[in-house]
């Protein structure tokens, strides 16, 4: 019997999301002034960073089972910034604090500076409608 390989592993999900976030940061920084597209981009970055942060523990679970504690801790340290910056971006976009959005976007861009996204990528615009999704998700958590 052969091994079953999950084509939608946490690593692949993280890679797709980091590429999309890198693209969204570049688009956000091109915006001449805050508008609905800017809100969508900032919300998409926040949601994607949250999703990336959620992939960390499942990714290191296998290493910890085998006793690779140092490798697991190093991996966590490499990705711990995603949760912090997701919360910063979420708060800034809800407060419409575009200065803080820009600062957070630049910090995310620096973390993902090695990610290459070609000009003719096939990702489209995954951030379309992200502002509404972030608002809905926030309403679910607040209970309203």
What value does the Rg take, in angstroms?
A: 16 Å
Q: Indicate the proportion of strand residues.
A: under 5%
- End-to-end Cα distance: 50 Å
- Could you state the order of secondary-structure elements as H and E? HHHHHHH
Features:
globular, 144 residues, mainly alpha
Can you summarize this structure?
This protein has 144 residues and is mainly alpha-helical. 72% of the residues lie in helices and 0% in strands.
Describe the structure.
This protein is mainly α. It has one domain. Helices cover about 70% and strands about 0% of the residues. The protein has seven helices and no strands. Helix 2 (about 35-55) packs across helix 7. It is globular.
Helix-strand blueprint:
Blueprint: H1 10-30, H2 36-54, H3 56-65, H4 69-79, H5 81-95, H6 98-111, H7 130-142
């Amino acid at each position: 019997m052969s091994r079953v390989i999950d084509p939608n592993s946490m690593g692949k999900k993280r890679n797709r999301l980091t590429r999309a976030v890198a693209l969204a940061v570049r688009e956000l920084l091109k915006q001449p002034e805050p508008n609905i597209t800017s809100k969508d981009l900032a919300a998409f970055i926040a949601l994607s960073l949250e999703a990336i942060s959620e992939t960390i523990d499942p990714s290191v679970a296998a290493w910890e089972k085998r006793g690779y504690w140092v490798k697991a801790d190093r991996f966590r340290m490499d990705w711990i910034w995603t949760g912090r910056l997701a919360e910063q971006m979420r708060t800034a976009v809800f407060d419409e604090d575009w200065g803080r959005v820009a600062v957070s976007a630049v910090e995310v861009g620096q973390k993902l500076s090695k990610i290459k996204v070609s000009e003719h990528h096939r990702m489209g615009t995954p951030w379309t409608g992200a502002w509404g999704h972030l608002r809905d998700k926030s309403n679910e958590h607040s209970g309203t």
